[in-house]
Amino acid sequence: MFHLRVLVPAEQSAAALSLLRDQVGVTHVVLLAGAALEPAGDVVEALVTREAADEVLAALCELDLDHLGGITLEAVDTVLSDAADRAEEAAPGDPADAVVWEELLAKTGEEAKPSLTFQSFLTLACLLAAVGVVTNSPVTIVGAMIVGPEFGPLAALAVGLVRRRGDLLRRAGLALAIGFPLAMLVTAGATVLEGAAGLFDRGTVLSAHQVDFVYQVGPYSLIVALLAGAAGMLAMTSAKSAALVGVFVSVTTVPAAGYAVVAAVVGEWDRCLGSLAQLVVNMIGIVLAAAGVLLLSRRRIGHDRPLSRN
Predict the structure, then answer these.
(1) How would you write the pLDDT of the chain (310 residues) with one tens digit per residue?
(2) CB-CB contact of 235 with 247 (8 Å)
(3) What is the rounded distance in angstroms from the CA atom of residue 95 to the CA atom of residue 103?
(4) CA–CA gap between residue 145 and residue 154 (Å, rounded)
(5) Half-sphere exposure of residue 69, counting CA atoms within 13 Å on the CB side?
(6) DSSP code of 27?
(7) CA distances in angstroms from 21 to 30, 65, 97, 111, 287, listed in the order given
(8) What is the maximal distance between C-alpha atoms in the chain?
(9) String of b and e for 207-238 (b: at least 16 CB within 10 Å)?
(10) DSSP code of 207?
(11) Where are the alpha helices (DSSP H) in 101-218?
(12) 82 exposed, middle or buried (CB, 10 Å; 0-12, 13-18, 19+)?
């Protein structure tokens, strides 16, 4: 369930309370008159089932409370209440199947920001991938997959496509368009220094057969990307974040970027182009599958209410 807190102008408290009381899947409704100081007004709180959250948020936004006051939604792990149990039973559908669009937009929007933290993780992941290539270490390649933060912007692209949110598409596209080239440039510099120090040579890269899968593009490259994208979006919409680790290990995005850099440094342009193709195929597959999952979820829910403007 979710804990909902709404800051409401005093003159609209009655409307907000009526809305929550009439809504299936809402219980523990509380009014704290005059408790809000900035912005001034009342505070209305309630417990909301995951199945009802999207509808409740849309209704509150129709009252313009996201602009006149404020709406906060946070997950509650444990609730001991017969009233909450009845609300869960009354709400249609299953909590695991419910998509809370505002939550998803906030999550993907935050992860799609081209921030210093995002760039740092992506650069470190590319460096790890390059080390995995020159040391012929699949374990290091897997480590690079896990460290890489690129699924966030890719998921944001899928959400932006389904919701037709140009701002989210631009933000995620910018993060990827700046992030990968910059990470690869830093990795190229580090790889050149390693080569000059005699840590590896062209023969080392050519004999690294355990990591050949990184640049070898085939039908299963797209199949794995599609499956991983679908699993990743299901994990995000159902709040089963543990499944995301499996998604990170499944896709060959960061390893492909790292391999492309190493191959370019040693002059193996066929492998470099193959790695770049692997990167593109994986990114496209992830976005398409993630968008497909969201489209199916929207059809299953049977409505598509406009979200608050933010």
Answers:
(1) 899 999 999 999 999 999 999 988 999 999 999 999 999 999 999 999 988 888 899 899 999 999 999 999 998 888 999 999 899 888 877 766 677 888 888 888 888 888 999 999 999 999 999 999 999 999 999 999 999 999 999 999 999 999 899 999 999 999 999 999 999 999 999 999 998 898 888 888 888 889 999 999 999 999 999 999 998 888 888 766 555 666 667 778 999 999 999 999 999 999 999 999 999 999 999 999 999 999 887 654 434 433 333 3
(2) yes
(3) 14
(4) 14
(5) 27
(6) E
(7) 10, 17, 24, 34, 39
(8) 76
(9) ebeebebbbebeeebbebbbbbbbbbbbbbbb
(10) T
(11) 101-111, 116-134, 138-147, 151-163, 166-196, 202-206
(12) exposed
The SS3 of residue 191 is helix
CB 104 within 8 A of CB 50: no
CB within 8 A of 128, min separation 6: which ones?
Answer: 140, 141, 143, 144, 147, 254, 258
User: ∠ CA 291-293-296 to the nearest 5 degrees?
Assistant: 110
Q: Which tokens belong to 226?
A: 């599609």
Instruction: List the end-to-end C-alpha distance of the chain, in Å, as a whole number.
Output: 24
CATH of domain 2-97: 3.30.70
**Count, residues in the chain:** 310
Of residues 260, 270, 241, the one with CA closest to residue 104 = 241
CB distance 150 to 179 below 8 Å: yes
Provide the token pair at 215: 């640049």
Smallest Cα–Cα separation from 31: which of 20, 40, 23, 42? Answer: 42
Q: How far apart are CA 163 and CA 167, in angstroms?
A: 11
Global pTM exceeds 0.85: no
